[in-house]
Amino acid sequence: MANFECAGCPNALDNTMSLQCRQCNDNYHVACTRISIEDFSVMSPEMNSSWICDVYRCRQP
Ligand SMILES: [Zn+2]
Ligand SMILES: [Zn+2]
């Protein structure tokens, strides 16, 4: 099964408002990240594709 469940909550992802972690490839609702909807709406594709989730292992240098 494709990884289309949010890693931050038990709900399924819609493909619009979601982010994928560059490190672990987990997908999150924007609402389940620390990024606000406002910030998400002005994120460039580059920023979007370099996003890293808040899981401890992904935050390691
Ligand atoms: Zn979620
Ligand atoms: Zn991650």
UniProtKB/TrEMBL annotation:
Please report the stretch or stretches of sequence annotated as the Zinc finger PHD-type domain: 5-57
One Gene Ontology MF term = zinc ion binding
The UniProt keywords, alphabetically, are: Metal-binding, Zinc, Zinc-finger
Q: What is this protein called?
A: Zinc finger PHD-type domain-containing protein
Extract the SMART domains matched here. PHD (SM00249)
Signal peptide range in chain numbering: none
Instruction: Output the InterPro entries linked to this UniProt entry.
Output: Znf_FYVE_PHD, Znf_PHD, Znf_PHD-finger, Znf_RING/FYVE/PHD
User: What Gene3D superfamilies does the annotation carry?
Assistant: Zinc/RING finger domain, C3HC4 (zinc finger)
